């Protein structure tokens, strides 16, 4: 798979080959007339010797998983797109859990393309992250590209124990270069100790509620993204709110977390803003 | 419900402090994103379907009698901008003061005791509607209407826009106001059974970013 995101380098090609032996092909996903249903499952646990083990690493269909070289206590997992997905009608799920004290970094090898299905039915992409006490998870996938005619609903949920740390990046690209976007609806819900920390819904593209691209919407921008950092250390020293130019802001949430939100003309400039934020607030 | 009570609560002259807030219109006018009646209408439409829907559902849920503390936490999670959280609590405090004088009830007294620094305005609005004998759909209508009437009247002052044109914008949005309010009331009903996750969390990144920038301005006409 090779594709070009507006203004960005070909994302599939810049990913280094993962180290280690090639694991067996993932099992065939369940295919229904409506589309593919597939779930990737990851469990990370502290191995008691200062590192993180992955007792569960199970990809399925378009969601193949590779273990990557970790750093220090952190285990790395790469989501490798084994097919162009999700197509309309597909339902993909990624479930990752980090046990007490575990350190996990999740990335994806290439951008995810939302593509139209034959029947025009929506596709679903669910991500569920569960973080136990003292765990730390970095969820840093490549951009999601909403291709013309597609209809995708993304649901991301992260449930954190009060002492867990989370670094989460979301980037949405509306249409390939010069292309009209599809319909993209996404919701991000983060709870900490069962209390809601962040709940955000976004709808854009043809068919979204009125005004999505207007002066109270995207105002013509074609990429948007956010970086969320949840860290109990922010309780003692919360980050201060800041404005990063006209179209990005740093907003401390009501709990120990900071959200950096940015709109940009293209994926490259969006990544620059989020990378800078990551160096300041992340790890 | 009493239609007259609804008119009292929704009246722009109800002394709840809303006139000091532009709902993001001041920042949008300065940036040139609102410059005439057509761009005001698109701004209002975008705000109605994002912040307006979210506020309307919170108000409807509070009017239904859901726990205000749970709803206030849900409102916090739906308001990433600290500038907007501060504005929402300030507006909530001012509305509660007016509401307790207008429709005194034990529920409003309890809310004031539980949130000395103010609860989020839509939560207070829902409990105020309840105190006035109004229902969840009424509360949703008031919240949805406020989400567009604030920017519309502010733009008249900011740009010198013809007030007839501003009223025309609001009138053209009426069918969408009705549908957003109905959707909010249905979500509130679901939240009673399924919990606050059933409430919408529609948001606009640009409104959040611009609100933070606006709060930093040394001189401004509106508080938000």
Automatic annotation (TrEMBL), chain B:
Protein origin, superkingdom: Bacteria
Entry's localization field: Cytoplasm
GO cellular component terms given for this protein: cytoplasm
Pfam families: UreF
GO molecular function: nickel cation binding
Record carries keyword rRNA processing: no
Alphabetical keyword list: Chaperone, Cytoplasm, Nickel insertion
Xref: InterPro entries: UreF (IPR002639), UreF_sf (IPR038277)
Family the UniProt entry places it in: Belongs to the UreF family.
Assembly behavior: UreD, UreF and UreG form a complex that acts as a GTP-hydrolysis-dependent molecular chaperone, activating the urease apoprotein by helping to assemble the nickel containing metallocenter of UreC. The UreE protein probably delivers the nickel.
Record's function text: Required for maturation of urease via the functional incorporation of the urease nickel metallocenter.
Record's protein name: Urease accessory protein UreF
Gene: ureF
């Amino acid at each position: 798979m090779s594709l070009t995101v507006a203004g960005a380098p070909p994302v599939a090609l810049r990913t280094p080959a993962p180290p280690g032996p090639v694991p067996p092909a993932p099992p065939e996903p369940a295919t229904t007339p409506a589309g593919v249903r597939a779930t990737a499952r990851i469990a990370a646990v502290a191995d008691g010797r200062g590192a993180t083990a992955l007792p569960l690493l199970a990809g399925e269909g378009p969601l193949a998983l590779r273990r990557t070289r970790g750093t220090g206590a952190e285990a790395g997992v790469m989501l490798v797109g084994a097919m162009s997905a999700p197509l309309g009608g597909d339902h993909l799920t990624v479930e990752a859990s980090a046990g007490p004290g575990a350190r996990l970094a999740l990335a994806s090898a290439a951008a995810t393309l939302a593509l139209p299905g034959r029947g025009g039915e929506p596709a679903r992409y669910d991500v569920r992250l569960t973080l136990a006490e003292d765990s730390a998870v970095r969820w840093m996938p490549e951009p999601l590209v909403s291709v013309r005619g597609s209809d995708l609903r993304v649901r991301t949920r992260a449930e954190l124990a009060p002492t867990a740390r989370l670094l989460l990046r979301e980037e949405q690209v509306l249409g390939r270069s010069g292309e009209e976007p599809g319909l993209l609806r996404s919701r991000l819900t983060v709870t900490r100790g069962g209390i809601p920390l962040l709940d955000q819904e976004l709808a854009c593209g043809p068919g979204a509620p009125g005004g999505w691209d207007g002066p109270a919407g995207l105002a013509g921008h074609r990429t948007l993204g956010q970086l969320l950092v949840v860290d109990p250390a922010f309780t003692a020293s919360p980050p201060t709110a800041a404005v990063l130019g006209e179209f990005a802001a740093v907003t401390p949430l009501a709990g120990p977390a900071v959200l950096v939100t940015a709109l940009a003309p293209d994926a490259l400039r969006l990544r620059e803003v989020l990378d800078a934020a990551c160096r300041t607030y992340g790890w | 419900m009493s239609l007259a009570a609804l008119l009292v609560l929704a009246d722009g002259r109800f002394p709840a402090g809303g006139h000091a807030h532009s709902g993001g219109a001041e920042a949008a006018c300065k940036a040139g994103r609102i410059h005439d009646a057509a761009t005001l209408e698109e701004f209002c439409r975008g705000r109605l379907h994002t912040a307006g829907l979210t506020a309307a559902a919170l108000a409807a849920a509070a009017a239904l009698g859901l726990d205000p503390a749970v709803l206030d936490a849900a409102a916090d999670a739906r308001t990433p901008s600290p500038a907007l959280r501060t504005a929402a609590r300030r507006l909530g405090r001012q509305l509660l003061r007016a509401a307790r004088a207008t429709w005194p009830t034990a529920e409003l007294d309890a809310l004031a005791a539980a949130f000395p620094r103010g609860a989020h305005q839509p939560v207070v609005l829902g409990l105020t509607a309840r105190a006035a004998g109004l229902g969840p759909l009424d509360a949703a209508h008031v919240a949805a209407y406020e989400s567009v009437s604030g920017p519309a009247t502010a733009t008249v002052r900011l740009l010198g826009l013809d007030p007839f044109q501003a009223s025309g914008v609001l009138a053209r949005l009426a069918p969408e106001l009705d549908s957003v309010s109905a959707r909010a009331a249905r979500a509130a009903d679901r939240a009673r059974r399924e919990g606050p996750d059933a409430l919408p969390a529609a948001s606009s990144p640009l409104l959040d970013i611009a609100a933070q920038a606006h709060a930093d301005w040394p001189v401004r006409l509106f508080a938000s």
